[in-house]
Amino acid sequence: MATTKRTTRPKAKSTRPAAKKAAGAKATMRALLARLGISTRATASERARAYLARRELPAALVRDLAACTFEGTVQIGPIRLFSVEDMPRANTAETFRRAVKKGFFVVGEATTGDGVAVELATGNVAFLSHDVLIGFDPDRHRLDDAVARSPFDLVAFYDAASRDDGFPADFYAAGGG
């Protein structure tokens, strides 16, 4: 009599713990600020929340920006991060107006005055050269001449700035120009 061998499929490994870990691996701005000992208020002002809503920013970016409820500007490594209350002023400044119109949102600055902005099309942070933008001549320049892009989103950018002593401090150090 022939015996039949029953084969069973090996159980698929659950991807839930890995997925949960991957989802938890994405740091938040609130967690980064807490790690750095930067105290924040519970929520942004109504004026700041309304400004972020009018700008129609991606939800994840709004969540991270809304955590920036500290007073004034904070220094993280070589880069400054603006309070959410100061971001409207930064995004209407004459120096960065051209970049803002082309899809950048200014969130901070280098100590040299170069802007630090999120490129809304990619979600990544870039340095904006204030030197190029102040003297911007559309006949001689392209906006890309004033942009040094990073591979980091907002939280990863400031996290790297806080941990890496060699982190670029401005547009030129980031490879711009």
Strand content: 15-25%
Adjacency order of strands in the biggest sheet: 1-2-3-4-5-6
Span from first to last CA?
82 Å
Radius of gyration, rounded?
A: 21 Å
Main sheet: strands, sense, barrel = 6 strands, antiparallel
Coarse shape? globular
Number of helices: 8
Reading the helices and strands in chain order gives HHHHEEHHEEEHEH
Number of strands: 6
Poorly predicted runs are 1-25
State the share of residues found in helices, binned by percent. 25-40%
Find the structural class using helix and strand composition.
alpha+beta
Mean pLDDT over the full residue set: 86
Key features of this structure:
177 residues; 6-stranded antiparallel β-sheet; globular
Task: Explain what this protein looks like in three dimensions.
By secondary structure, the protein is an alpha+beta fold. It contains eight helices and six strands. A six-stranded antiparallel beta sheet has the order 1-2-3-4-5-6. A hairpin with a 4-residue loop joins strand 3 and strand 4. The protein is globular. The relative contact order is 0.14. Residues 1-25 have low confidence and may be disordered.
In short:
This protein is α+β, with helices and mostly antiparallel strands and 177 residues long. It has 8 helices and 6 strands; from the N terminus they run H-H-H-H-E-E-H-H-E-E-E-H-E-H. Strand 4 and strand 5 form a beta hairpin.
Helices and strands in order:
Layout: H1 16-25, H2 29-35, H3 46-54, H4 59-66, E1 73-76, E2 79-82, H5 87-92, H6 97-101, E3 104-110, E4 115-119, E5 124-128, H7 130-134, E6 147-153, H8 154-163
Antiparallel strand pairs: 1-2, 2-3, 3-4, 4-5, 5-6
